Recover the amino acids of this structure.
């Protein structure tokens, strides 16, 4: 499923927090969004998810303008995992994941055995089956994150938008999740902080700086030491694995904030 | 529980409660008399019953019990809806000042003659309820988000609208009117008759059906409005419809029987304790327990002080205030 943005922008607090973002996510592609804190990653994802309305430009899902689609039509095709979503209700992990079926159900099509199977599969994919009956407030941060991802998977979306999906996860669950997203038959757009995750698990990366696109392209072209120094103020060295040719970045040092601030 | 078991069980519970509401009171009337009277009126059965007993049962107590049941349903569901949409365990029409606003609206129509006789008490109460909710929502937004901001705004709103009501009563009502209104404001079912049922019952039934239709949407608000939106719920429209329904149900009940507090707090929490927080179960269970609870409170209000009727609002508050405290303590533990 394809997702596109045309000259997208959003104003908040009297300034443009996102401006002039154009991109076309091709079906089946994994696009990583990277950038420093406050660079507009979450803002962009929320616009792509249709949660916030753009101040300028427009988002299209499979060629249809987001403005013209109903919330339900969007939710059947696109799932969004927010950076943090909490509840004080006493509900189980399974209850939370079942919410993902909401856009597919109505009075004439109640929750059935097929939905249970989809929910079970989603739980299994993020290794949450053993915790399915646990109450939400007893979960750890990483377990909550995995439950949210299972909820999004239960939506059976063609497009999956994830805001820092590896947040709170231990190293094994981080890698398992990224590998899962690579395996799934979906188009995925995810905000990531780990440059190596972006470079290993994304087809392309979009680098944001102060709400504008600094670079967009394959990881090897975007994540160069010069670009990373310019955007993040961090010195990195490129390491190519002699065995499999995998490209990773090693942090060598950083420029102190005192020197970059006027 | 399956609907096949649950629906008859719910109907039976309400029937038993109604029968008790008709049987108990200053003079106890046997359940058999209640059953015969009801059969005479509903199916023209032609049983021989003492006409005075029959009059008490049919004209006073049954009408009153049905109105009590409708109020119970309306207030309990209002609590369920407000708690889900505001994601606040302490939200209820009384705490949020919606009842107070409805009282002000009703009093403005009754005493000031707002609307020049063209506007009914309920319509005035509805306008008051919506105004109060709007005021409280704006205040809560200005006070910053967060659970306590909403509740504090609700307290401020209640105080404001109660003060307005008192002001209207003090300025414009004569002594007898004032006494009557103050008694009504505390919640009082003694005036409830069959004509009130023709207003209360359709509102309660329609409100229940609407809430049952929206249970999935209510569930979707579990992780907040944005999460509901990404699950495909049209958030603004759903909020408007559900809050409008809540305001309407509260307003109609307040215009009939005054403001009865804490039902919207006690019942949903009790129901959650029994069947969990998914609305597919929470809504019907809250509706039924709300109906039974308010009939029971009405019986208690007629029985606890011999020869005296305690306003039903006093009874619900005696139960509700400690429940409020418990919920407050539990909410703190959970966060
Ligand atoms: N409602 C708002 N009013 C004013 N400024 C806002 C508002 N919402 C976001 N911003 C600002 O917009 C910028 C972009 O925010 P955004 O959340 O998109 O950043 P991000 O790239 O996701 O950051 P992080 O890495 O910390 O998650 C930030 O500087 C933020 O302070
Ligand atoms: Mg962010």
């Amino acid at each position: 499923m394809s997702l596109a943005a045309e000259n997208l922008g959003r104003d908040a607090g009297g300034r443009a927090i996102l401006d002039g973002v154009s991109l076309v996510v091709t079906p089946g592609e994994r696009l990583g969004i990277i950038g420093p804190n406050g660079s507009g990653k979450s803002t962009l994802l929320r616009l792509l998810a249709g949660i916030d309305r753009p101040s300028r430009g427009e988002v299209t899902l499979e060629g249809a303008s987001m403005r013209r689609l109903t919330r339900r039509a969007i939710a059947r095709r696109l799932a969004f995992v927010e950076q943090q979503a909490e509840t004080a209700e006493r509900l189980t992990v399974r209850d939370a994941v079942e919410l993902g079926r909401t856009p597919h159900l109505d009075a004439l099509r109640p929750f059935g055995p097929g939905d249970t199977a989809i929910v079970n599969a989603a739980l299994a994919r993020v290794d949450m089956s053993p915790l399915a009956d646990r109450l939400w407030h007893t979960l750890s941060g990483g377990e909550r994150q995995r439950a949210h991802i299972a909820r999004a998977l239960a939506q059976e979306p063609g497009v999956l938008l994830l805001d820092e999906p590896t947040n709170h996860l231990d190293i094994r669950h981080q890698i398992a999740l990224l590998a899962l997203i690579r395996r799934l038959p979906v188009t995925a757009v995810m905000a990531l902080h780990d440059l190596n995750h972006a470079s290993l698990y994304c087809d392309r990366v979009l680098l944001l700086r102060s709400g504008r696109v600094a670079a967009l392209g394959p990881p090897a072209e975007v994540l160069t030491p010069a670009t990373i120094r310019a955007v993040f103020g961090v010195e990195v060295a490129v390491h190519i694995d002699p065995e499999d040719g995998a490209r990773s970045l090693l942090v060598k040092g950083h420029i102190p904030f005192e020197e970059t601030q006027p | 529980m399956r609907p096949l078991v649950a629906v008859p069980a719910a109907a039976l519970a309400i029937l038993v409660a109604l029968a008790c509401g008709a049987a108990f009171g200053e003079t106890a009337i046997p359940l058999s008399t209640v059953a015969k009277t009801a059969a005479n009126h509903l199916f023209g059965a032609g049983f021989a019953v003492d006409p005075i007993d029959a009059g008490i049962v049919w004209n006073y107590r049954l009408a009153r019990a049905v109105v009590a049941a409708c109020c119970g349903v309306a207030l309990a569901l209002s609590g369920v809806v407000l708690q889900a949409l505001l994601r606040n365990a302490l939200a209820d029409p009384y705490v949020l000042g919606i009842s107070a606003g409805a009282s002000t609206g009703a009093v403005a129509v009754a005493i000031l003659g707002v609307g020049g006789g063209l506007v009914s008490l309920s319509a005035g109460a509805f306008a008051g309820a919506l105004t109060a909710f709007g005021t409280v929502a704006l205040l809560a937004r200005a006070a910053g988000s967060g659970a306590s901001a909403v509740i504090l705004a609700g307290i401020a709103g209640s105080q404001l609208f109660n003060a307005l009501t008192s002001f209207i009563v003090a300025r414009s009502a004569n002594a007898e009117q004032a006494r009557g209104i103050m008694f009504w404001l505390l919640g009082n079912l003694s005036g409830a008759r069959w004509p009130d049922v023709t207003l209360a019952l359709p509102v309660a039934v329609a409100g229940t059906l609407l809430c049952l239709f929206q249970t999935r949407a209510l569930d979707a608000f579990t992780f907040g409005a944005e999460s509901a939106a990404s699950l495909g719920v049209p958030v603004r429209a759903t909020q408007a419809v559900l809050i409008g329904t809540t305001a309407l149900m509260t307003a109609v009940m307040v215009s009939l029987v005054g403001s009865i507090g804490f039902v919207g707090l006690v019942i949903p929490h009790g129901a959650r304790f029994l069947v969990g927080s998914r609305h597919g179960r929470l809504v019907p269970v809250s509706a039924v327990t709300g109906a039974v609870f308010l009939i029971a409170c009405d019986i208690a209000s007629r029985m606890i002080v011999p020869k005296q009727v305690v306003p039903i609002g006093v009874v619900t508050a005696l139960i509700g205030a400690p429940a409020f405290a418990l919920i407050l303590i539990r909410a703190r533990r959970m966060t």
User: Anything to note?
Assistant: Residues 87-156 of chain A form one domain. The first strand of chain A starts at residue 3 and ends at 12.
